[in-house]
What does this fold into?
Amino acid sequence: MTTATSAARLESFSYDDDIVRKFMWATLLWGFVGMLVGVIIAFQMAVPALNLGVPFLSFGRLRPLHTNAVIFAFAGNAIFTGIYFSTQRLLKARMFSDALSKFHFWGWQAIIVAAALTLPLGFTQAKEYAELEWPIDIAIAVVWVAFAINFFGTVARRRERHLYVAIWFYIASIVTVAVLHIFNNLSLPVGALKSYSIYAGVQDAFMQWWYGHNAVAFFLTTPFLGLMYYFMPKAAEKPVFSYRLSILHFWSLVFMYIWAGPHHLHYTALPEWASTLGMIFSVMLWMPSWGGMVNGLLTLRGAWHKVATDPILKFFVVAVTAYGMATFEGPMLSIKTVNSLAHYTDWIIAHVHTGALGWNGFLTFGMIYWLAPRLFQTKLHSTRLAEVHFWMATFGIIIYATAIYSAGLTQGLMIRAFDQTGRLQYPDFIETVLKLLPMYWARALGGTLYVAGILVMWYNVVMTWRKRPAAYEVPTYQAAPLAPKHVDPAPALPNGVWARFQAAHWHRIWEGKAVTFTVMTTVAVLVASAFEIVPTFLIRTNVPTIASVKPYTPLELAGRDLYIREGCFNCHSQMIRPLRYETERYGEYSKPGESVYEHPFLWGSRRTGPDLAREGGKRPDLWHVRHFENPREITPRSVMPRYQWLLQNSTDYGTIQQKVDAMAMLGVPYGAIEGGRALTQAEQMAREQAAAIARNIEKEGGPAGLQDKEVVAMVAYLQRLGTDIRKPAPGTTASTQGVTRAAPAGGQ
Amino acid sequence: MTPDPKGPAPHGTDDLLLDHEYDGIKEYDNPMPKWWLYGFYASMVFGLLYWLKVPGTGGNESVIAEYRADSTQAAAVFAQAEANKPRMGDADLVAMVGDARAIAAGKETFTKMCASCHRADGGGMIGPNLADAYWLHVKSASDIITVINEGVTAKGMPAWNAVLKPAQVNDVSAYVLSLQGTAVANGKAPQGDAVTLTDVKAPVTGAAPAAPSATIVPTAASEAPTAAAPANAGGRPTASREATASGG
It folds into this structure.
């Protein structure tokens, strides 16, 4: 480009590497913190007492902290590090605004700190990877928009006409994450740090996994593919294997990923057409995903001898290989029958860790080792230590993965085993958990090794930083601005439509038009989303109503919020699948109509403990009280944490009316039951119900005077779960049998 | 900007280097690998065929239909197994109390499944005291088996038939029976009627060692119902009669 048309009008510019250094330090810090929390909860799985009996250290509250910290703090800062470094160079322009860069950096770190404070305190929306409450969600949206303005401003001021493939992936990520975040987090605030999702039940589950799956896609995959396309050829000093492959796999990935979300909800109350769509698009995603792996690995052709000596390339090779394995496994897990085995087990945990530890972690580590000497303008302190880190992390992953895949498969197979008398082979859920304990220990060990590797990297980077020059050199570059009118010189195009299409000159033209490119990407994402989301909301037969299903009483609602606060959904599902080994164990399978007042849905995704969808009436009240106080009194060796504070804390009766009102505003028909009494006397109703339950607990031989304690609200909620369909529905047929088939609305 | 159709081909191929370059990164104009491209096409064909085979519907019809078929089949298997289940009489259960293996197995199941409501020593808590002589739903020894199998769901006692295997139910019933008269401290106050569960006909031999413990005294004098013993479950009783241990 230096020989561009108007050499006379060369502009001088420099790159802002200070912001890249900031993001890199943040990546290092949060990577350690996020994964340390992971190791802590890994040990808690084996020894629940390790939460020290402190509410904010209990598994249900720390687990979302771990996932959020690793995804948004570690991977997030890693993405920003790479994007801020590469975008400036790929576009030959300094970031649009240094102030916006700083705002982005400090805003993002403040959000992370807010998350680290609120999640352990139990403020959560109860939607996976979208746990943060509404004020933080607004902050995320604001900071993300600032980032987008900064990024697209830089694109607008670029001195490189065409956008490189890394930039395509950045564009797709920035646009889509904004869309996903905003639509999934729409909620009605009930207090400073409390809100209810505006969607309920099936729709909420659908939105959540449209979001959840695409958070994986557009936060952990596409931005990292962009980073790979920059740092891999840089480190290998080789050209990218195939330009045409990058075009096809970029567009197919962006378009198809969006559809795949429902594969997280196979066999649930989600309509089957959505589940089927999710499955077939997941299968079709296999090759588009592998396109990235192929392009990465084949870029190393002729450079494999370097891999032997260069830890950076080693990290990249393992990262891309892990990506390949995870994106083969993903389509496989999306096949319904495979999914029935893996869902709710540690297999899914193993799958995400292949991606997070292998792909995101290793790509980040390789990138940091490549960046550190360049950013600190000196040599890396020790290549040998980087090599040590590589092997520690590799063995860490191997130990982790072996253990936790075994755990997933073991539990999956035990859960579905029947004996020759037609009974479950392992009817006692705890049997399937105790079998996993040795594997949990091994997993914690593997994780510890991986985190220890990060400390080695810390040391290496800090020592490199100490060798930095007194003042960083800021080189100036020169390039011509973009000519206002530009026409891509047409090469000799082959004859025939298909041949012309394959020649990809049309795409070359798009690459020169940033607005067109961004619009096309956005259209791909939105069209795919609309095809799935709109029918889910419009087809009434998707969610056949059940007349006997009524809203929760005020006290039950308060109990439900405690269930959310404690993060019970992290270990207990509330969704019985229509599979015989589920219904034998838990009772009748869950119907869509049972979730219609569930703001948010609490179906869960992992069963470390049994499903609770039909918990109501299964056990006496006192059983629950004693179980909360100490689960091991009831089930020897249970791994559930103690919740003794539920017996000590007083129920917050003051906010119950507000909660009922909010639910009513969201369409829960409180006005139609008991003459709308809950709309005016919610607190009174809650106190009456609590007193009745407390009396019963006392009658059963339990402690007296529990009526104002949280445990009573929790018991009220649990005893209601799944009981409504057993009640008679006056004057209605409460069955889902008569539902007429709806049009196959998703596919055309 | 100078077109450079033949770039360096490090591994001896004639890959075409494209004429663009970004921050030093160049790209080859290689075609997509055939296996990759055909794999992609194949997955799309699969997707289309699957969609045609499992059409989108309003609800979960095909999944539910599969589930129903599975359940019907399983119900038949279960019913068959139930029909073949050996019936336990009062005397059979009393005899089992003398079976050390049965009592040990029963105790293990009791600790896991029952102790949470009836207390580890059977003294009662949420559920009634099983160590005293008062019973709510039991008139004779084998009623224990019935109550465990069918539960008293209205009062919170689950039905264990679908969970515990028949042999396990027998073992735990024998264990419960063996708790009769054990002096449990701080037991729950008596509920129901006093029933002498030990008032059954003695097993065949009626020998002294068969008397499981001092607390359960079969009326050894009466005639033994010889028919009862063979009806007992799977050969266990004969062997058990030598056992003298009881109550774990």
In short: The domain at 90-240 of chain B is CATH 1.10.760.10 (Cytochrome Bc1 Complex; Chain D, domain 2). Chain B touches chain A through 66 residues (CB under 8 Å). Residues 145 and 246 of chain B are 19 Å apart (CA to CA). Confidence is low (pLDDT under 50) at residues 1-12, 200-248 of chain B.
